[in-house]
Design brief:
- The protein is of the alpha+beta class.
- The chain is built from 2 helices and 4 strands, in the order βαββαβ.
- The protein has helices at 13-27, 52-61, and strands at 3-8, 32-35, 42-46, 66-71.
- β2 and β3 (42-46) form a beta hairpin.
- The chain is globular and about 25 Å long.
Amino acid sequence: MKTKQFKTNINCSGCVSKITPVLNPLLGENQWEVNTGHKDKILTVALDNLDEKSLVEQVKSAGFKIESLTEK
């Protein structure tokens, strides 16, 4: 499985609840996670069935910032 990490401003459980209805249909449940304890609020996603551009557009349309980091 290919994963990709992004720097975001999803910084609390309220933000995670706001982005969950966007990411679950897009990626699937348990196919993404946000490390809100990290200073860069790292979003890690499985990109098996989605292109990165679509993901970035969806996260931005939900009102969050997102910036690509490194591939794993």
